[in-house]
Amino acid sequence: MRSNLGFFSDEKFRSIFFQTLVVGLFALGLFFVISTTSYNLEKRNIATGWSFLQNPAGFDISFSPFLEFKSTDTHLKVYFVGVLNTLLVSITGCIAATILGFILGIVRLSSNWLLSRLVYIYVEFSRNVPLLLQIILWYSILIQLPRVKQSLQVLDVFYISNRGLYSPRPIFESGFSYVLIAIVLALISSFLINRWAKKRQDKTGQQFPVFSSSIGLIFIIPLILFFILGSPLSFEHPELKGFNFKGGLVIRPEFIAMFLALSIYTAAFISEIVRAGIMSVSKGQREASAAIGLKQTWIMRLIIIPQALRVIVPPLTSQYLNLTKNSSLGIAVGYADLVHGFGGISLNQTGQAIECMAIVMATYLSISLTISFFMNIYNRSIQFKEK
Amino acid sequence: MKKLLSIFAVVAFAFSAHAGTLDDVKNRGFLKCGVTTGLAGFAAPDDSGEWAGLDADMCRAVAVAVFGDRSKVEFITTTGKSRFPTLASGEVDMLARNTTWTISRDVNLGFEFVGVNFYDGQGFMVPSALGVSSATELDGATVCIQTGTTTELNLADFFRLNGISYEALPIETNDEGKENLFAGRCDVYTTDASGLSSTRAAASNPDKWVVLPEIISKEPLGPLVRHGDHQWGDVVRWSLNAMIIAEELGITSENVDAQTSSNVPEVLRLLGVEGNYGEMLELSNDWAYQIIKQIGNYSESYEANVGPDTPLEIARGLNALWTQGGILYAPPFR
To answer: CA spacing 20 to 30 A to B252: which of A354, B12, B50, B179?
Structure first.
């Protein structure tokens, strides 16, 4: 029996109808939000526009390791300082979390009962305590370190206090660039040697000591060059002058707290991902490789890990994204990241909340999409290639 | 579709178009007043959990003016950063939160400062063990500074002007500042001198801390409301003025009843015995009488919260009446 709904019983019509309805409602909602916002901004005499970016900031940012920042610089520069600080803690955090996570994931599977239990406790603790609390915990511990005048001296050149970790700063003199060039050339040639050796091994079965020859190229040759050129590198040592250490490199407790909390927290998740990845490789693979007489470490490196990576990489990508986004919690301890500097102080001093937040959001979105892009490329490269 | 859009526009308009704030407050039955997260002497919960302080009194005075009842206030805590969005969005009806009156806040942020309830200036506090006697000796020091404040900008200016360097340690609240200063993470804490006194009073051993003599800025602190609602602005402005005028006229919470039979015309006008000033503000005619009766005049509020007999020990200084060497001055009540 045909229904008397006519057109509505047509599947094609129905699908177009509902899709149009949803898009229409969404557009209407968007229009509602934008019109209300602009109406209210105007009514409350709140300034709008982007010209504030060129105005002098008027405040100082003390943690800016890559750019010199003065209070006469613009809000735009505040933004760049923030982006760099966000990237700094995110990238170092991702690297540390990955290394720690892989080690812990493998240890968790070890047959040593005590080790695997300890990792279990670590994972359950750091996964289940809010990250914000962990950041504050680390910071509270760090500011209880000795005061700057009573700094702990380590190895005669490092100083530890609640103002941070001070270390000598390397000063590159003329000629050091040759050493750098040598290192870059060595890296490239090691890579080429690696490819060549692999090809040769595939063809002839002959092996080549890739690892030791690469070490020789990357470390020994530049080192010899370094001494031939008369050691073109000196160090500026931190010195306690007045209130603070002058000179040297300093790593602030705000950064250390963020770095520790982010990498320890994320490493717990990564270790579980790694464990799941390794366990996803069927037991037969391990037994088969043992049967043909491969060493334990080789089984892991050549058989298990490459297959596990296919399972590991997609969720690993989302952990990198999480870590980057979580770095915005730096505001809790005054770490001068994007949200704290541009999305906080600039926003508050100019009052242009919508513009600042829009820029901050767009920036996080771009960073996240960039990470996804590269991780997807990597993911494709390790996927099982069907021939 | 066009019709639908215009309906939406009208709805949007209706949502955002307020009745006056005064009517909103009256309909709601209590005042929402934005205060600090806790700054002794200005706004902080006392031993019994009641909000007390100069700013808290300002909130209560407005509540008394509107409702005749000092308890009709909800105190909403705001940080240096959240205060302006909180006021702009209508979360609070007014701010009495140690906020400095500046041109950009008055004009660009869309607020209206209605007066000054405390004339302050930015100072520095250091541990006395540091042996520093002037702010110009602070070259290279680490300075704790609340973000999003005028003090942050003044600090940068002061060090730039004197050609000395510093490291800023940004903090969000006064409590964070205390924690970092007491732990030695920063050498110096800078904020309004009154805030320093308040922080010092809260230290376990106040003598270990010294406030340096330099006052590097003008910080007129006062209540503010949203720009454009002049009726509400008038209510808050004159609640403050009433307390100042009461001090000028010598009316206190104790003698206010006797003063209703005074023969001074301005006293009678203020207390609502003569004239209809309450009606002009759309308040009851005894609004100012109630403020003085329930809160007291400016001097009483000052002495009880921040004056020399309190832990803050702040002398009247600039905050004395204009007739007594200060600059506190209210327009005439007529």
So the answer is: B50
Position with higher pLDDT, A144 vs B108: A144
CA dist., res. A84 & res. A123, Å (int): 30
**8 Å CB contact between B177 and B199:** yes
The b-or-e profile of B245-261 (16+ CB within 10 A means b, else e) is: bbbbbebbbeebeebee
Taking a C-beta distance cutoff of 8 angstroms, is the pair B4, A28 a contact? Answer: yes
Which one of B147, B162, B176, B180 would you mutate to disrupt binding with A, by most A Cβ within 10 Å of its Cβ?
A: B147
All residues of chain A having their beta carbon less than 8 Å from the beta carbon of residue B9 are 35
| Contact check, Cβ <8 Å, A334/B170 | yes
**pLDDT, tens digit (0-9, with 9 covering 90-100), for A251-279:** 889 999 999 999 999 999 999 999 999 99
Q: Which of B85, B148, B183 sits opposite A349 (nearest CB)?
A: B148
Strand B219-221 and strand B118-120: the pairing is antiparallel
Domain-by-domain residue ranges, chain B?
20-119+221-324, 122-217
Q: Which of residues 39-58 of A touch B (CB under 8 A)?
A: 39-40, 43-47, 58
The domain B20-119+221-324 having CATH identifier 3.40.109.10: the answer here is: no
- Confidence band (pLDDT; 50, 70, 90) for A5? low
Return d(Cα B21, Cα B41) in angstroms, integer.
28
Bridge partner residues of A239 (DSSP): A246
Tell me the C-alpha distance between B40 and A366, whole Å: 44
Q: Which CATH superfamily is domain B122-217 in?
A: Periplasmic binding protein-like II (3.40.190.10)
- Lowest-confidence region among A91-100, B74-83, B233-242: B74-83
- Four-way CATH pick for A75-154+252-382: 1.20.1440.230, 1.25.40.10, 3.40.980.10, 1.10.3720.10: 1.10.3720.10
**Are domains B20-119+221-324 and B122-217 of this chain identical in fold?**
yes
CA of B260, closest CA in chain A: separation in Å?
41
What are the extents of the domains in chain A? Answer: 75-154+252-382, 169-236
Mean pLDDT, to the nearest integer, of A206-228? 81
Tokens of B215: 């006052």
Q: Which residue bears the tokens 């809790």? A: A332
In this structure, which amino acid lies at residue A302? L
For B140, the closest of A241, A344, A351 (CB atoms) is: A241
